[in-house]
Amino acid sequence: MGGGGDTGGDPAGVLVLAAQHGARVRRHRPGRQRRHRHHACPQRALPRCRALDLRLAETRATEASAWNRLLALWLLRADEVDAEQAAQCPPEIIPGIYCLRSRGNLDKLAAIGRPVIVPLRGESGTSWAVLLGVDVLRVRLGMGGDSFDIDRRQLERIWNGDFVALWKAQPWLDLPLRRGDRGPGMDWLHTQLLGSGQLAPLVGPAQYDDDVVAAVRRLQTAHGLQPDGILGLETLLALTGEGEDGPLLRRRL
């Protein structure tokens, strides 16, 4: 068949065909995989970096241990949800308990305001910690049964931005909520936005109208999220992050 010859797995043939069609080609090196870059430690901070790497190597806290600590912070008993079940992180682990795997920086996590699980990639492998506090200079981590403070830069050297969050919200929310939606979920959302000063009092049934879209976008922007005006999991986490129901990040360390 004209113009559709099989290259037979020949890399040179693939490059020629791609060039003929004007495609940009990136050469693949066999066996090479993307890895998290372990940032070099500045010379002046070497003692602290070595001390942190030694702590990670000695503790080697597992993901299960981090989950046990986070579940305890939320006062969730093992007969309600255990670490193995929680680590699967479905959108709703059990009714009213939500979970999210995402990425961000420390400013984003500080804005969310809840403890989260973070993987730390030290010289000896990956350990798992619970982020307990953040201020302008330092962070507080919980590993195993211990808690300790380190500089923000030290954390950024061994953390790639991944995090796992757990929080409580109404169990009957049918996410995502978006423009035009009505019902119990919309009534609840309006109450939350009203309580935070994002919306004016409502006359009549709640509806996901232009005012709600604008309020949700303001909330998303304030928390470093994409301002699409839709209430999804990450926006729900941001919305409930300042509530009194559950543990909060420490702001002063």
Question: What's this model, at a glance?
Answer:
This protein has about 250 residues and is an alpha+beta fold.
Overview of the structural elements:
By secondary structure, the chain is α+β, with helices and mostly antiparallel strands. Among the domains are: 126 residues, Cathepsin B, Chain A; 48 residues, no CATH class. It is built from nine helices and seven strands. A seven-stranded antiparallel sheet has the order 1-2-7-3-4-5-6. The chain is elongated and about 65 Å long. The N and C termini lie far apart (70 Å). 26% of the residues are buried.
* SSE sequence, one letter per element: HHHHEEHEEEEHEHHH
Topology-level CATH name of the domain at 43-168: Cathepsin B, Chain A
Helix content: 25-40%
Biggest sheet: strands, sense, closure? 7 strands, antiparallel
Structural category is alpha+beta
Low-pLDDT runs:
1-36
Q: What is the first-to-last residue Cα distance?
A: 70 Å
Count, helices = 9
Radius of gyration from the CA trace? 23 Å
Oligomer: single chain
InterPro entries: Peptidoglycan-bd-like, PGBD-like_sf, PGBDSf
Domain Peptidoglycan binding-like: 183-239
Pfam family, one: PG_binding_1
Protein name: Peptidoglycan-binding protein
